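Title: Prediction job returns without error message
Component: structure pipeline
Severity: low
Priority: P3
Assignee: unassigned

Description:
Job completed but the reporter wants confirmation the result is attached to the right record. Sequence as submitted:
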Amino acid sequence: MRIKSDSRWGVIYAIFTGLFLLVMLGYIGAVTYYTGMDTAVGWASAGFVMLLLLLGGTLMRVMKSEATQTVTALNEMMDRAINGQPLQTGYTESEVSSLEHRFIRYVELSSTHEQKAEAEKSSIKALISDISHQTKTPLTNIVLYTDLLGETPGLDEEARQYIARIKDQSAKLDWLVHSLIKMSRLETGIIAIRAELTPLIGAVTGAVSQIYSAAEHKGIEIAIDCDPGTLARHDAKWTTEALFNLLENAVKYSGSSGGRIAITVRGSEMFTRIDIADTGIGIEEGEWNAIFKRFYRSPKTAEYEGVGIGLYLTREILTAQGGYIKVSSVLGEGSVFSIFLPAL
């Protein structure tokens, strides 16, 4: 940068010097001509020109020196701010000094906001941990007492149905609470996603294993096309979570029985792509963006269970890993969710 700056100043010097000399030579020539080629007048004019040239050059050097000092002071100020060093500067009646004090004020305000953000983050983290702890015990007790109640002899069929419903609803409540906690942790940056360049096959098979029983129960065929050597920069644990959310929806919205889910993984120079295609109810084009919003539920899925968290969590997980997701669908024929993860 310094070389470019010096070169730029050299060009400015050359241009202004050339123009100045050209104007002054014209002036000397005109004066000499109109005074009848008087030598004394010519030399006086030349001396005057040289004096102006000297003063102009001195002025430009002073301006360059002032500009250099200003830039140097600003660079030092920036370096101290970046390195977290205290900003100390004396006050003078100058624009540079005013700028320095404004910058110091900006740094102080930024530091204050950062400290407040960290304090809020710590507070939220403590709150989430407290919620997790406070809900875990009651839910565990509900499940435990329900199991004990179900083992009570002499219960009629209606009572057993009620018990089964309590267990089912308790499991759903437990899932909802854990999903909300995950969402809050992702949004506040509490969860640290550690992305590494590793094969995707583990995350794919891990997600499939979690929904295989539900798919088999509904007679849904699952096909995987993934080269074991295909890599992506990702956190395997959270990628598995994202894939599971998509596969769970694929199974849920594939009708009462039958259907097919195809998982295809392809690598490229920049991104590794994972396509999850199903033969479910499909999604209207006008909802392709809305389905990734928090708590969004399509009017056409009212008969299906859910709260609209899964796809939102999936998008947040992928974004945190430097990836993204998109969808294409034909209503009544099925959908294709495409995940893109960095391949470098």
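Comment from assignee: result matches the submitted record. Strands lie at 196-199, 221-225, 231-234, 260-267, 271-278, 324-330, 334-342.
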